[in-house]
Design brief:
The protein has helices at 2-13, 33-56, 65-91, 98-131, 140-157, 160-166, 183-187, 195-227, 233-256, 267-280, 286-291, 295-304, and strands spanning 17-20, 95-97, 175-176. It has a three-stranded mixed β-sheet with strand order 2-1-3. Mean pLDDT is 76; it is low at 1-12 and 260-266. With 315 residues, the chain is mainly alpha-helical.
Amino acid sequence: MDISQSATNSSRLHVSKLILMGLPGIYKQHWLSLPLALIYLLALGANILIMTTIHHELNLHQPMFLLSTLAVVDNELTTTNLLKILAIFWFDAKTIIFPECFAQIYALHCFISMESGIFLCVAVDRYVAICHPLQYFSIYSFAVKVIIFMVLRNVLLTIPVPVLAAQRHYCSKNEIEYCKFSNPGVTGLAYDDTTINKFYQLSLAWIIGGSGMALVFISYVLIFHSVMRLNSAEAIVKALSTCRSHLILIFFFYIMSITHLAGKAVSIFLVLLNVLNLVITPPPLTPMVYTLRDQEFRVGFQRRVLGLNKNVSQK
C-alpha cells in the first residue's frame, strides 16, 4: 500500500515540461521586445546583404571566406536564442517539452563552439597576414579544411551534452530563470547526481573554449612581437588597426559567453549582459564590424547591392 502510494506520488512529481521565466527581473516589460526585434531584423538583413555581396564578388571569396562563415553561424546562433525570447514577450510561450529543450541545448552549444573556432581561425588569419604576408594567399585551401574539421568536431563533441542531460531525472522544479537553454541551467533542476554532466561540460569548455582562447592569445603575442619590430610608426598603427575589431569582439564573446556562470548576485547587471550577448555583441553584428571597415568590401557592396557604377573609386 505504502509502496503503491509512493510510486504514485513519484509519478506525480515527475515533470514533462520546463517553464522559461524569460529575462530575469524584466520579462514582464513587453515594450522591450520591440527594440530587440528591430535590432535583430536589421542585423539579420545586414548579414544577408554581406553574404550576398561576398557571393557575387569573386575577389572577396578568399579574403572574406571566414567572415561569410561567421555571418552564417551568427545568424543561426542569434535566431536560436532570440525567437524564444520574443515568443515569451508576445505570446507568453514559456513552456517547452524536454525533447525540444534538449535539441535547443545542442544547437546552442554547437553554434557557440563554431563561433569560438571561427574567432580562432580569424586570429591565425591575422597572424599569417601580418607575420608571413607572402604565404597569406596560399593558405586558403588549408582554411577550408580547418573549417570542415571544426564543424565535424563541434557536431560530434556536443552530442553528449543533451544526451547526458536527458538521462537525468527531473521532479518538482521546472522553472528556468533565463530564456537560454544552457546545460547548467537545465541540469541544475535535476534531483539526481549531475557530476558527470558538470565534468563533461567543463571538459568541453576547455577543449573548445579554453584551448581556443589560449591559441588566440598566443597568436596575438606573436603578432605584437612582430609588429613592434617594425621601424615605421605608421606601419605599426596600420598593422594593429587590422586587429582592433577582432580583439574587441573576442573580448565581448568570451566575457558574455560565461555570464550565466555569475549566478544571481548581480542580477540586473547580468540581465544587461545577456541582452547584449543575445542581440548586439558579438552575434549577429560581428561580420558587419569587420566588413564595413574593409575597403574592398565597401566597393563591392556599392556595386552589387546599391547598383552604383562598376568603376566606383576606392575611397
